[in-house]
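Fig. S4 source data, part A: sequence.
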Amino acid sequence: MKKVSLIIPVFNSPVTIRRCINSLLRQTYRNIEIIVVDDGSTDDTAKVCKSLEKSSDALRFFSLAHAGVSAARNFGMSKAGGDYIMFADADDYVREDY
């Protein structure tokens, strides 16, 4: 079964990132990794992500100094171990069969 890496750059989005991650964790396709890259948030975003990371082996969280969404996506790709790479934004949420 092919592994899918889902990369999510996030910046100052503590409410929407929770909804996004939870929707990805509920996927019917189970061979996934979720890589969340915080691009220097100045609010509770990192705290929310770290809390969610503790509850799932599929989720990995990284923090960077603020460098922009492209830098965060590129960093996420460097950490990805999947056969396929997908991107989501912090305010996205998806159906269970995404």
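Fig. S4 source data, part B ends here. The first helix runs from residue 14 to 25.
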